[in-house]
Amino acid sequence: DKCASYLKDRNSPLRYAFWKLDPEPYFTMCVDNSCHNDKFICEAVTAYAVDAKLHGVNVELPKECVTCESDSVKIPANTEVTMDRAQKHSSDYVVIVEEKTCNNRLINNLANLSKR
């Protein structure tokens, strides 16, 4: 079961946070919702990873839960893709800002940054 492999297994990429943040509520959420759709597995795992970071433990998401979407096509992690530049006339930017009080002003101004 994928939920157990991510949220209970000793070899899980999330295991480094198990001692600091109890994975049981996330495991329950994963099992309860995964019967409807596999995407809920990654949602539970991602929620755990985000909460672990808030508790001071950085964990790596499983590769299956890291994707990039381009033109409605999901591209898995560690996949190299070549785009035809003749067809694309725009650029995407990703801005990552750590959620800390000292970054509040920057976070509030992100919308203005994208207009420049």
Residue share in β-strands: 5-15%
- Biggest sheet record: 2 strands, antiparallel
> What spatial order of strands do you see in the largest sheet?
1-2
Which residue ranges are poorly predicted, with pLDDT under 50 across at least 5 consecutive positions?
A: none
- What's the average pLDDT? 81
Amino- and carboxy-terminal Cα gap: 47 Å
Tell me the number of strands: 2
Shape: globular
Order of secondary-structure elements: HHHEEHH
Quick summary:
This protein has 116 residues and is mostly helical. The protein has helices spanning 2-7, 24-34, 39-54, 104-108, 110-114, and strands at 67-70, 73-76. The longest helix has 16 residues, at 39-54.
Can you put this structure into words, describing what you see?
The chain has about 120 residues and is mostly helical. The protein has helices at about 1-5, 25-35, 40-55, 105-110, 110-115, and strands spanning about 65-70, 75. It is globular. It starts with a helix and ends with a helix.
Output the keywords.
116 residues, mainly alpha, two-stranded antiparallel ribbon
Topology:
Blueprint: H1 2-7, H2 24-34, H3 39-54, E1 67-70, E2 73-76, H4 104-108, H5 110-114
